[in-house]
Design goal:
Blueprint lengths: L3 H116 L13 H15 L9 H16 L15
């Protein structure tokens, strides 16, 4: 038993036996690896065929979503503009209603003043109405001469003040009638 060739042959035999056992045991594993490789190859082929159209569909969907987003933002902007226009229309309607109210008040004050002027007796009429036509012309020419002073040119402040005062008085007292003497300027 001390023969080295015997031990060398025995070791080769054991190595061959163990390699055979290993190969027999590894044979099903190699078959599974081959099956997995075929499955992976099929998967890669399927991906190669299906992935580009899927990616294209995803790209088109993204473009459609961006278009829809743009449409929605345009719709929101136009809705905002419509709201602004409605607000402006409401403001305009309020202003027109206020103007109509002022105009209506002015018309009623004018009607009251005209009615009181018509129903007034001749003795209570202002003295300018009792003047003769020639006296009225002379008086109006004096009023015009006083309002157009040659040395200084002024806006008709007195007249404007008088009109404001007469409007105030006519709204407070419907029987108030302005007198033409009030138009004369004081120097």
């Amino acid at each position: 038993m001390t023969n080295p060739i015997f031990w060398l042959g025995l070791s080769f035999l054991l190595v061959a036996f163990s390699l055979t056992v290993f190969l027999v045991a590894a044979l099903p594993a190699f078959q599974e690896i081959a099956r997995a490789a075929r499955s992976i190859e099929k998967l890669v082929d399927t991906l190669r065929r299906e992935l580009p159209p899927t990616l294209e569909a995803i790209r088109l969907t993204g473009m459609e979503i961006s278009d829809l987003t743009d449409d929605v933002s345009d719709g929101v902007k136009s809705a905002g503009q419509i709201v602004k226009q409605v607000d402006q229309s409401l403001d305009g309607a309020k202003k027109q209603a206020q103007k109509a109210q002022v105009t209506t008040k002015s018309v009623f004050v004018g009607i009251k003043a005209a009615w009181s002027s018509l129903t007034r007796s001749p003795s209570t009429r202002p003295k300018s109405e009792r003047l003769s036509p020639s006296q009225r012309r002379m008086r109006s020419s004096r009023l015009q001469q006083a309002s157009f002073d040659e040395n200084r040119v002024e806006p008709l402040v007195y007249r404007d003040r008088y009109l404001e005062d007469s409007r105030q008085l006519s709204s407070d007292n419907p029987h108030f009638q302005p007198e033409p003497e009030d138009f004369e300027r004081e120097d």
